[in-house]
Amino acid sequence: MSYEPPRPVRGLLLTPEDKEAPARVSRLRRLGLGSRPEPGLDAFADHLAQLTGAPYAMVNFIGADHQFFAGLRTPLTAPAVRADGTRPEVGRVMPRDHGFCPHVVVRRKALVLEDVRDYPRFAGNPVVDDYGIRSYLGAPVFDGSGMALGTVCAFDVAPRAWGRSGLETIKALAAEVAARIQRSADDGLPI
Fold first, then answer.
1. Residue 58 in contact with residue 153, Cβ under 8 Å?
2. Neighbours of 180 (CB within 10 A)
3. 84-110 burial, b if ≥16 CB within 10 A, otherwise e?
4. Which SS3 state, helix, strand or coil, does residue 68 take?
5. Distances (CA, A) of 40 to 36, 37, 83, 187
6. Any idea which of 16-20, 47-51, 85-89, 155-159 has the lowest mean pLDDT?
7. CA–CA gap between residue 51 and residue 30 (Å, rounded)
8. Which of 57, 81, 98, 161 has its CA 20 to 30 A from that of 3?
9. pTM (global) more than 0.85
10. Burial of 160 by CB count in 10 Å (0-12 exposed, 13-18 middle, 19+ buried)?
11. What's the start-to-end Cα distance of the chain, in Å?
12. pLDDT single digits (tens) 99-136
């Protein structure tokens, strides 16, 4: 599998180049992650949504060309409505150039966007129009070797002030998922 870095658009690289993608894909395969839903991570996403009050929450593993939501919590009815009157459905797989999690993984730092439209780099992302995403909170999930495997994230269809407490919460929850992955790898326990 080869990895082509994204092309710049109007001088702005929308999705960052990810030099660790091939190694991450290999590591995710060895861990058995990133290709199927994980009931324990779905429960974790539910917990994250409750803690943050966000309608959407995920545990996301980043591949070379796509993202996979191994843990997913969405509302029963999508709160966003597109211009054509339809409501978007969030599935388990999303292209790598959609959303903000690939930025978190490459940056290796948490990202808080209270209103994504305030940031030119993020305002043009397909999820803003396609899914009505207006605010995002995410932190990287690292394995024992220090590789960023993916993210723990929450997002909303309305701008929101996540604040310092939101940032600290998402970082702590990302560390909790990392510990669960390590325990699963070491002891063969389910995540």
1. yes
2. 19
3. eeeebebebebebbbbbbbbbbbeeeb
4. strand
5. 12, 9, 35, 16
6. 85-89
7. 31
8. 57
9. yes
10. buried
11. 27
12. 999 999 999 999 999 999 999 889 888 888 888 899 99
What tokens appear for 35 in the block? 């290709």
Nearest to 120 by CA among 11, 5, 4, 6: 11
Q: How far is CA 184 from CA 62, 90, 181, in A?
A: 19, 27, 5
Measured CA to CA, the distance from residue 32 to residue 153 in angstroms comes to 21
Which amino acid would we find at residue 147?
Answer: M
Pick from 157, 106, 120: nearest CA to 136: 157
- DSSP bridge partners of 138: 111, 153
Give me the residue label for tokens 């309305």: 158
Give per-residue pLDDT as tens, 45-103: 999 999 999 999 999 999 999 999 999 999 877 666 667 877 777 889 999 999 999 99
> Under 8 Å CB-to-CB from 90, ≥6 apart: which residues?
56, 69, 72, 74, 78, 131
Q: Is 32 left (phi over 0), alpha (psi -120 to 50) or beta?
A: left
User: Which pairing describes strands 148-156 and 135-142: parallel, antiparallel, or unpaired?
Assistant: antiparallel
